Amino acid sequence: MKKLLSLLLLTILLSSTSSYAFAPIEQLPDQVLLDLDGEPQPFNQWKGEIVILNFWATWCPPCRREMPSFIELQEQYGAQGVQFVGVAIDNPKMAQRYGSDHGINFPTLQGEQSGLELSMMLGNHRSVLPYTVIFDRSGKVVSRRSGEIRHKEILATITPLL
Predict the structure, then answer these.
(1) What's CA 72's distance to the chain center, in Å?
(2) Do 51 and 73 meet the contact criterion of CB atoms below 8 Å apart?
(3) Which of 37, 39, 75, 131 could bond to 55 as cystine, CB 3.0-4.6 Å?
(4) Mind listing the pLDDT tens digit for each residue in 35-49?
C-alpha cells in the first residue's frame, strides 16, 4: 500500500510539473531579473553577445571555485562580446558581499525562487548548483552544464563563437 501511495504521489507531481521540466527552452529567455542593487535587468540587453549564464550560491563550494575563472574570462574576452551573467540563488545581500569581496566583474542578478525556476526552464531538472548555460550571439543554447564547469570547457565552447 505504501508503494502504491508513493507511486500515486509521484504521478501527481509529474503531471502537475510544467512542460519545461521535460523540454528546456533553447533560446536566451525573454526574462527580467533584478540585479543586486534592485534594478531590473532584461536578458535581451545581452542579445548579440556570447552569454554565459551561471546559476550559483555563496554557500556552494563548486560555485565559489568557478568564480575566479569567470572573472578572468570576463576580463579577457569581454571586449570580444563575451558576457558572463550570474544568477544568485541566494540571499541578495550575501551575494552582493561575496561579489564585492571577490571582485566579480560581471552582472549578478537576484535569483532566489524565480532564478531556480529559470534554471529549470533552461534544463536544470535536478536543481543542481552550479548550473551553466552558454548562448551564442543569436541567443541559441550551445551548452548546458550541471555542476562545476572548468576554464578549459568554457574556452572550448566560446572560442569557435568569437
Answers:
(1) 18
(2) no
(3) 131
(4) 999 999 999 999 999
Residue 130's alpha-carbon distances to 13, 81, 142, in angstroms, are 25, 23, 17
Q: How confident is the model at residue 57 (pLDDT cuts 50, 70, 90)?
A: very high
If DSSP codes are grouped into helix, strand and coil, which group holds residue 36? coil
Contact between residue 28 and residue 139 where contact means Cβ atoms under 8 Å apart:
yes
Mean predicted confidence (pLDDT) in 76-97: 96
H helices of the chain, in order, are 2-16, 61-77, 92-102, 112-121, 151-158
Task: State the chain's mean pLDDT as an integer.
Answer: 87
Handedness of CA 153, 154, 157, 160 (dihedral sign): negative
- Angle, alpha carbons 145-148-150 (nearest 5°): 90
